[in-house]
Amino acid sequence: MVAYMRHIMRSTVADTLPAKARRSLEKLGRDIALARKKRSLTVIMMAERLGVAKSTYLRVEKGDPNAGIGIYAMALFVLGASDKLGDLLDPGGDDIGLLLDERRIPQRVRTRKIPSSL
Q1: Tell me, what DSSP letter sits at residue 116?
Q2: pLDDT per residue over 50-100, tens digit each?
Q3: Among residues 41, 44, 26, which one has the least CA distance to residue 79?
Q4: Cα–Cα distance measured from residue 75 to residue 50, given in angstroms and rounded to the nearest whole number
Q5: Contact between residue 59 and residue 67 where contact means Cβ atoms under 8 Å apart
Q6: How far apart are CA 76 and CA 35, in angstroms?
Q7: Where do runs of H (alpha helix) occur along 1-118?
Q8: CA 27 → CA 31, 33, 94, 95, 107, distances in Å?
Q9: HSE on the CB side for 13, CA within 13 Å?
């Protein structure tokens, strides 16, 4: 009974993940699967290179949000695309961040008066 209650009360990322984020992960999984196939790698070969079970790797190809980000990162590394992970929120390409920075620029800039007692 306790295990059952713990299971009911536990919330996972998959339960709260917005639909748009879920679709993005599913697309990433499909893209990883396609890249694997283009490189003539089997599911078992990928799982071995990632150091995970076949079933865990298949969760990545399905875009499972409960698969750890480290497994996704390793899949990208094996496929030769790990540099792209580091560029996801590059400050130069963060349009929202750039707009927020622009809004913080003051309308006027004034010089500070220095007290004459110095």
Answers
A1: T
A2: 999 999 999 999 999 999 999 999 999 999 999 988 888 888 888 888 888
A3: 41
A4: 6
A5: yes
A6: 9
A7: 2-9, 13-16, 19-38, 43-50, 54-62, 69-78, 82-86, 95-103
A8: 6, 10, 21, 22, 43
A9: 10
